[in-house]
Amino acid sequence: MHKKSSTKQKSVVKSMIELHEFLLWGFSIVSLVIVYIFEGLIKKANNSMASLSLNTSTPLSPSSPQQPLSWVGQFLHRDDHNKDSNNFLEKKTGAAVSLEEKRILQQENDQTTRKANHQKGLIIISEQSSSSSSSSDCSGNKGSGSGGIGVNGGAIKLRKRPAKLVLPEICASSLELCHDQMGKNCKLEKKEFEIQGRDFVMACKRGSRQVMEDGYGFMVDILGDPKQAFFAVIDGHGGRAAADFVAENLGKNIVKKLGNVGEEEQAICAGYLVTDREFLSQGVGSGACAASILLKDGELHVANAGDCRVVLSRNGVADSLTMDHRLSREDERLRIENSDTFRLQGGFVFCRNGVWRVQGSLAVSRAIGDMHLKEWIISEPEIKKLPLTSDCEFLIMASDGLWDKVDVQEAVDVVSKDKKNTIESCKKLIELSSSRGNMDDITVMVINLQKFFTT
Hints:
The protein is α+β, with helices and mostly antiparallel strands. Among the domains are: 193-325 and 366-452, Phosphatase 2c, domain 1 (4-Layer Sandwich); 327-363, no CATH class. It has helices spanning 2-51, 71-93, 99-119, 127-130, 241-261, 264-280, 330-337, 340-344, 400-403, 408-416, 423-435; strands at 122-126, 146-149, 155-160, 176-179, 185-188, 192-196, 200-205, 214-220, 229-237, 287-296, 299-305, 309-314, 317-320, 349-352, 355-358, 368-369, 382-387, 392-398, 442-448. Strands 6-7-19-18-12-13 form a six-stranded antiparallel sheet. Helix 5 (241-261) packs antiparallel against helix 6. The longest helix is centred in the N-terminal third of the chain and has 50 residues, at 2-51. The radius of gyration is 41 Å and the shape is elongated.
């Protein structure tokens, strides 16, 4: 019994395999029949199209409306055009050509047609790409072009080549266009500018940025006294909002505190702190380093917060009156790292490409502004006072764009050669820094100290 059942199972499996093969053969035969019927329909449609005289070799008038073709008609229309192109190429060469030769001859024909249209002052736009748009002139008026047939058989539009644009004269001046934070157009200041004052000279040069972030401020004849004056050089970062604010308000705030406090150093420190507090109240995120001097009663009061620098020339010898507030100074780095705010908020000081930075971003440890780093970046300045003596010749105040490339003694030597302390000495220092690869903004101010002595 067991042998009989196994024999029956084998016969059943064999029958199923034969049935599967039969179905496959049947499906193949049915597919061939469908393809044969479809080819017959294509030929019949081709004959119908021929009877309607749809021939791409005849130019179509752009003024006469055309009925859209079905997808079958579009297919046959493209096929007829390819046949006409092949016949044209065979007539031109006098023999059947290969596909590669046809492509080369077709490209030559296209180039010849384009050159002819170009000489006529026409621009060819394909019908397919221009069907959804229309040409317009500078005033917004829509223009109409003449129609024609493209070199590939498709309908095209031809229009006159527009006249050459003539830029207004203002674009060739020293003013440049930029985009402010709101995306509006604004005018940039000149790339270089200078000031010739009564007791000082100054020159500035914008670096690689679109906006000049350096600034300056000065007040002379304070309280009607020609021997009292205030000067400041400012280096902004993250925009020029802070630099502009400091230039306008730092000197005023210091002079106001002079009347209330009485002590010059306390007034200067209070002026820096008030300026910082007022700017932060505006909610703007930029910041600015500043170095300033106050000349009063035959004394020189020097203050700085950041990396702007003040250098005194004593009989031609350079004397740096300020120290840069950078994190390369161990005392400044430890001040930030040991602050409670720094530890509690997870702050860090990071050295990147040889430069120490707070939170990996700002390279100075003191500045006015910088709202997002205010817990660690203080605005309290370091202040130094010294009497003016006969050996005090002049001061050089400059942003780090100068001091990063020019040594302090080298700068004093350049200015000393100009006995009259003219603007040329400032411009020479700027050119010297730029020639050594500086890409930052540069501001240089030279103050003549001879007129501020008191007898």
